[in-house]
Structures are given as C-alpha cells and as structure tokens.
Design a protein that fits this description.
By secondary structure, this protein is of the alpha+beta class. It contains 6 helices and 6 strands. Bound molecules: zinc ion.
C-alpha cells in the first residue's frame, strides 16, 4: 500500500493528504573519508495538490553512517522552502503585526530568545490595535482584557502568561530581551495564530456576512417596491 501523509500547505493553508505523486525525494550518498564514513544527502519535496496553488515545499536532510551497509542516522534536517513555518494571514490584519509574527516564526529554531521578543511585541500590538487597550505593561493589558473576550480565549492567553520566563517578565517592557526555551517561543507563536484567527478573521467574516444580509434585504425590498408600482 502506498504511504500517505496528512499535511497543511504553508502557502494556501489547505489541509490535504499527500500520496506518492505529491512527495518526491532527491538523494545521493558518498564516501567522505576514513574518519567521517559515509554521508547521505536527501531533499524531500512536497508538491501542493491544490490546483490553484501547486507550490513546492522543500526540506533537506543530512545523514551519516560508519560503514557502507549500515543504516543511516540523521545528523540534521533543514526546512528550505518556504523559509519559515508561518501560516499565511490576510492583509486586513495590520502589516506590522504580520511582519512580527512572520519573523518570530523565521527565527524560532535559531534563537528562541529573539523569536519570543518579537512574539511578545506582536501580542502587545494585537491587544492595542484590536481592543484599543494601552497599559503600562503587557501584564496589565492582559488583565484589562478579562471580561472583554470570550472565556476560552482569555484562558488561553492567561495560561501562556503563566508559563516560565514569559510570565515572569510580563511586568517589564516587551522590548526587553529575555531567555526562553524553544517550547515557550512556540507557545507564543501558537497564541498569536489563535488570536489572528479568533479576533481578526472571525470579526472580518462576521462583518462580511452582515453586509451580505443587508444587501439581500435591500434587494428584496426593492423588488417588493417594483411589484407595487
Ligand atoms: Zn498550497
């Protein structure tokens, strides 16, 4: 049976199941030297099956083995294309916020510290832009949010606030660089993605729906008036 992989395209954000036609490998191995053994280089290329997208996502892996007929062990894997594991977000979300989010994703694996600094600034930017809240610290701004947002979202924000170094430093300026571990940096990125979806996208979708209802109602009433005259 051919193996399949469940995957979300980083360009079009569509969930899909990839089959053998959508995943290709490009690999080669070589003998390096007596003290380095054999090396295998591997490109894994995913082709988005969505006909409107069809973009390539490429990972590279480097593997090592001591002897010719041994199994390879992975040395490292890199995500090459796209550069960051960032989701695409629509342009009604302010550019500055999307830029901070994108860069937080871009730098995450190289520096959790730099990533978390960008994410904290982005989180503050979201709260200020979307809710018009402006407190002295992120901690105070989050406290002010309580009651304004739905309980589940508030709990998610509050649980991130309680985590390790992020929470410990929320009373300080968001631009202060703090030490965090990769899991904390990842958690902040998830929170930002959730807030983009729950606040900006939901509000936009709701507004579009309301506009459609208003337009349909206007159309119906015009039709009614036409029949009368
Ligand atoms: Zn795609």
């Amino acid at each position: 049976m051919a193996s399949t992989e469940h995957w979300t395209c980083p360009y079009c954000n569509r969930d899909c199941t990839l089959g053998s036609a959508d995943i290709k490998y490009c690999r080669g191995d070589t003998y390096l030297a007596e003290d380095h053994g054999y090396a295998l280089g591997n490109f894994k290329i995913r082709i988005c099956p969505n006909l409107e997208c069809r973009k390539l996502s490429i990972n590279a892996g480097l593997y090592h083995k001591e002897e010719q007929y041994e199994d390879y062990t992975q040395i490292h894997e890199w995500q090459l294309i796209p550069e960051a594991n960032a989701k695409p977000f629509p342009d009604f979300i302010p550019q500055q916020l999307r830029d901070d989010y994108f860069e937080a994703c871009l730098i995450k694996d190289k520096s959790a510290k730099a990533s978390a600094t960008l994410s904290r600034r982005c989180l503050q930017g979201i709260i200020r832009d979307f809710w018009g809240i402006k407190g002295r610290t992120l901690f105070k701004e989050i406290a002010e949010l309580e009651g304004k947002v739905d309980a589940t979202t508030w709990e998610a924000i509050d649980s991130v606030r309680k985590v390790g170094n992020i929470g410990a430093h929320m009373e300080e300026d968001v631009n202060i660089i703090i030490d965090v571990d990769p899991e904390e940096a990842e958690l902040l990125i998830w929170l930002i993605e959730t807030l983009f979806e729950e606040w900006y996208i939901e509000k936009h979708t709701r507004e579009e729906k309301m506009k459609r209802i208003t337009a349909i109602a206007a159309q119906k009433s015009a039709q009614k008036n036409d029949k009368k005259s």
